[in-house]
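Support request, please re-run this one:
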Amino acid sequence: MRKLPAALTVLAMAALGTVVPVSAAHAAGPCDNAFENATPTYMYAYSSADCAGFLGKARGNDSNWGDSGGSFQGGDTNKATSILNKGTDVVQFFNGTGTGWTGGNTCLSRNEGFASDLSDNDFSSGVSANDSISSHRWVLGGACDAWAR
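Re-run finished. Output below.
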């Protein structure tokens, strides 16, 4: 009688072993390669899905991606479709500008690594995060209302 429960346990563990790693990790792809090659302590933004169409990278805050200051400038505002974080803290992205850090927000942690397609994500205000990022800052995770995935 002990063989049946043991066999069922082995089968259940084998089934979990094939399901858990696939769902818990990113499938290897372009953003995985971009993350591996990214400079530590920086966040990156891309104009296309799958970390393609490099817009820029930043180590510090940038309160207006559409002005002529900061890492992101001019035409970079409202163009990000994928983002990557190889920093040590959380990056909080906004659909507003200015040092008041207004508008909806979404965050990306180093543990998440990247969001390969922001069309699947919304800011805390409910606005789509795709092609809507106008500023960013580095924060602790407790400052975040929404998370990019």
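The two ends are 46 Å apart (CA to CA). The chain has one domain: 29-143.
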